[in-house]
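Proteins fold reproducibly. Look at a concrete instance:
___
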Amino acid sequence: MLLLAKILIPLTLGNPLPVKNAAPPDTNKAVCIDHCRDVVGVCKNDNVTRDYVFDRQIYQLGCDTLPQVKFWQQIMKLSKDSCIINIACNRTIVAKMSNTDWDSKNDSAKTAFRSEVRKTYGLPDSARVLVTVGKSFFYDFDRAYENLDKGIQGFIQNGVDPWYAQAILLIESPNKLQKSNVGAYGSFQLMKPVARMFGLKVNKKIDERADFERSAFAASSLIKRVCIPKTKEMLDSLGIQYHEQDVWFRLLVMHSYHAGSGNVKAALWAIQPTAGGMDVIKRLWVTEAKGFRYASQNYSQLALAAMIEMNNKISVISN
């Protein structure tokens, strides 16, 4: 367990924290003021203050009470030897059991179990009843914390909201460098074409996606040059107002980072929202369109759950 003091030092707008190798103060000041409003200093038992993003909106909007978020918090703390039986559309938890107990059931018994759940909860036959295995081995918040400060600094240097750095680092590869089943790699889980687009070397001899600073630059550039502009373009076309620091806007950008803006656009067009807010995000959680499917629906749920779990882990409090 991390042994962190319950001390937060808010970043004052008139005196932003110094950024390593940053642009001169005059050119970087406006960026810091706009993007650092959620950045605070967390003091560990080594008396070193490190940057951390504390988003109060998550609690003001009641995101910490949403069943989908609470479900993923449990999965993040649950051993891989256990599982939670749940209703996919709303993450209602039906039962918890060991994987051994579930695996001991034959296919007929599993089908009968799911049918009984649908009957009990008044669900249609098409409703998915899922078995989700614990992932505490993957969501290693102690290890993820070690990279947050330099990720935040890297994004600020590139003029990008550091909220995204923290969210990505907490859910994409929080335990170790690894390659996904679709080829994404590194702390920011970049695909080869994206990494190369933003200047990283990826070939048979070298893969700069393993370089944290280079990978942070590519990830922040992707968000700044593609994800945020495309998200604004989508919302503008729907006539929806937004503010870039709104948590729902940030989550929508995260969906573009994960699923691609084309798939997010297809999902939004299926929903046809007339106003912004968390309701848009919650409707995405039950919407499928084009390549926006199960993993995409979960992405912003995971981001919220991980942010809240990290806050709990370091006993974060606000002044």
The chain has three domains: 4-60, 81-133, 141-313. Residues 212-237 form the longest helix (26 residues).
